[in-house]
Amino acid sequence: MAETRTVTPLEADLSPGELLPSGRRFRIVLVLGFLTALGPLTIDMYLPALPTITGDFGATPAAVQLTLTGTLVGLAFGQLLIGPLSDAVGRRVPLLAGVGVHLIASLLCVIAPNLAILGSLRVLQGLGAAAAAVVAMAIVRDLFSGFAAAKLFSRLMLVVGVAPILAPTIGGQTLQFTSWRGVFVVLTVAAAAIMAGTAIVLPETLPVERRRNGGIAGTVRDYGKLFTDRVYVGLILVAGLAMAALFAYVSGSSYVLQDGFGLSEQQFAYVFAGGAVGLIGATQFNVRLLRRWTPQQILARSLVAGLGFGLVLLILAITEVGGLVGILIPLWLVLAMVGLAMPNAPALALSRHGEAAGTAAALLGAVQFGVGALAAPLVGILGVGAVAMAIVVFGGMLAATLVCFLVVQPHRLPVEQPETAVAFAH
């Protein structure tokens, strides 16, 4: 017979996750961290292999970059579908099914005979990673609230930042011992381990009585309501356009640094990690900035600064002044400004729709990865050199800045409560 005990008045004010034994809570948080990392690992681990894949399949760089676009498309549409689905049927089934799809797709990528099939399988990988990302966030909301939720969100956002540093490094080291297909073997093993941990550790966190039963019509109504909010739409576009600048770097950097400047696969991984360090450092520094400035102020100023650094990057790329250093310094500064903008735009957007936070978060993620998906092949179409990458980076920052000041108009937004900013600032 299960043990029962009386809940004290103090415990009655705690969220369900805070009532769990510390050991079990730690295991749940650990699994949520691995789930959150699955998307960045899927996107970035094979980046050092892009030039090799181009040669093996006799394809153009733009065609190979479409495999990255496929992953981002899967991440975008997957969140739109799986977010509302998990609100209706619970968390475990969509989550386990999604990670299972990722595992199977990763295994099939190992034996993909041509680029078209590889690109299709990358879409399925993205769908699986979308389930991991959006359901992990939903589980946090199920189990924790208030300061506890803010603290856990900050840890998961840090995972999102650290994973892109580790992924190309892992991919680069893997390529020392095997071909690019070996990268997908590693992803298959990772997905299997994450799926096992999820099945063993994570409980169902959404009770039947809290599930939304509006069906497709209810989901459409929820999304329709979000699209009527001009400021919310503007903010998610700002987040998406900033993500486009980031993914222009992600998709173009391997060609620019390896083919253009002659870096090895391992050297590229280390340089790529340097940019990620700047991005992560900015997201963490944002917490300190929030003690003095509002999210609106930080968002506006970071976009203007990022636009300026993007212009410098474009000028130096065109004139070829400064060589590799002339590209990396302004590029890393742009990434740092993206790191300041990315936490604050979602914080402001999601604070406007607390009654439908899951759907609002799904749409936000879809727009971020959807717009980012457009940036990846655009770099290839323009030529994959430093100038092409710089044009898309600068264009993303320019569009984000224009949408921010013309549509969002941050100076007119109400000041957010500190708890709201901290929850997403990390």
> Could you please say which CATH topology applies here?
Growth Hormone, Chain: A
**Weakly predicted, low-confidence segments:** 1-13, 416-426
Structural class: mainly alpha
Number of discrete domains: 1
Q: So, CATH architecture? A: Up-down Bundle
Number of helices: 16
Supply the CATH superfamily name.
Answer: MFS general substrate transporter like domains
Question: How many whole angstroms does the radius of gyration measure?
Answer: 21 Å
What is the string of helix and strand elements? HHHHHHHHHHHHHHHH
Shape descriptor: globular
**Number of β-strand runs:** 0
- Average pLDDT for all residues: 82
**Binned strand content:** under 5%
N- and C-termini, Cα separation: 43 Å
**Main sheet: strands, sense, barrel:** none
CATH top level is Mainly Alpha
Assembly level? single chain
**Percent helix range:** over 70%
Characterization of this structure:
This protein has about 425 residues and is mainly α. About 80% of the residues lie in helices and about 0% in strands. It is globular. Residues about 1-15 and about 415-425 have low confidence and may be disordered. Keywords: Cell membrane, Membrane, Transmembrane, Transmembrane helix, Transport. Belongs to the major facilitator superfamily. Bcr/CmlA family. This is Bcr/CflA family drug resistance efflux transporter. Its main location: membrane.
